[in-house]
Recover the amino acids of this structure.
């Protein structure tokens, strides 16, 4: 281990992430020749080949792939430890990378709170990403994630924000033109609108029914799913904040109300990132204010909640 250079490991990680020495050189600031030498010395110290090199392409060997994954995680932990050691206990500054679900939950409810947090703490910058991909928090670069559903890893730090009620809804016109939906199995005979899932799992007390939605209208946006339901294209399943105003005004009707689902909306943070003071403070701020904003959205609609910031000041 004494013969292995940390610079060599970082050079290898950069080359692996960017797919070649030229691209890695442009990003890292090192020359292509310097990166090549560092990786060659690393391979010699390990007595293994990490990269296949040809004149046309470069790719990781099987050992190289495993070594890259382990080194990337180790470097993230070292960087987090260094940042923790150098941070000021009292001064809030630095970058927070956050990933969240989009739609009203992220864009109308969470984002205004994040903006207000940055207004209060001008030394902090929050990069807020609404991509819908499932994030491996341990391996990713995110400091904080907002997600719906059960936690995939109990070792992560979590704070519950709100219990979301998911409802099954359709337009009055659609229901007039279709058979009544009295049981979950009736959903098998009507058009459905869903996201990227392959099935709906409905629960009522001890009873559980699975409805496959392979032939459903597939939409990756909850807002568009709502619009499709309002247009009478079928039954959809959405969190209450999307449809509560429509249910009040009769634009949508809830079907199978006994089968509505409770899902936790949670903030999730890797243990190492939770040690950073700025990340903990943001988590507490969101925990303190999110519930009131959610209730405002249920009462007045997400658009009105977006306008109302009075309780924040």
């Amino acid at each position: 281990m004494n013969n292995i250079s940390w610079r060599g490991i970082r050079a290898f990680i950069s080359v692996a992430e960017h797919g070649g020495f030229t691209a890695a050189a442009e990003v890292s600031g090192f020359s292509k020749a310097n990166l090549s030498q560092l990786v060659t010395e690393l391979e010699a110290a390990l007595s293994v080949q990490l990269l296949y090199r040809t004149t046309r392409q470069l790719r990781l060997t099987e050992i190289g792939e495993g070594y890259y994954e382990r080194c990337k995680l180790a470097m993230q932990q070292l960087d987090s430890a260094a940042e923790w050691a150098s941070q000021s206990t009292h001064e809030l500054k630095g970058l927070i990378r956050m990933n969240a679900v989009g739609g009203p939950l992220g864009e109308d409810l969470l984002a205004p709170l994040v903006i207000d947090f940055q207004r209060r703490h001008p030394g902090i910058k929050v990069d807020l990403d609404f991509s819908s991909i499932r994030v491996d928090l341990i391996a990713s670069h995110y400091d904080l994630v907002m997600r719906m559903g059960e936690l995939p890893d109990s070792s992560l730090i979590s704070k519950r924000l709100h219990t979301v009620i998911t409802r099954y809804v359709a337009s009055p016109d659609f229901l007039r033109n279709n058979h009544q939906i009295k049981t979950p199995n009736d959903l098998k005979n009507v058009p459905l609108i869903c996201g990227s899932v392959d099935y709906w799992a409905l629960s009522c007390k001890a009873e559980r029914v699975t409805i496959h939605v392979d032939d459903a209208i597939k939409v990756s946006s909850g807002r568009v799913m709502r619009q499709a339901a309002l247009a009478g294209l079928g039954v959809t399943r959405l969190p209450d904040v999307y449809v509560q105003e429509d249910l009040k005004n009769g634009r949508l009707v809830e079907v199978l109300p006994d089968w509505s689902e409770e899902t936790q909306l949670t903030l999730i943070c890797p243990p190492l990132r939770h040690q950073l003071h700025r990340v903990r403070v943001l988590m507490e701020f969101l925990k303190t204010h999110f519930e009131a904003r959610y209730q405002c959205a249920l009462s007045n609609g997400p658009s009105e909640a977006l306008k109302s910031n009075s309780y924040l000041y």
In short: The CA atoms of residues 245 and 300 lie 7 Å apart. The chain has eleven helices and 13 strands. The chain has three domains: 6-86, 94-161+265-312, 164-263. The mean pLDDT is 85.
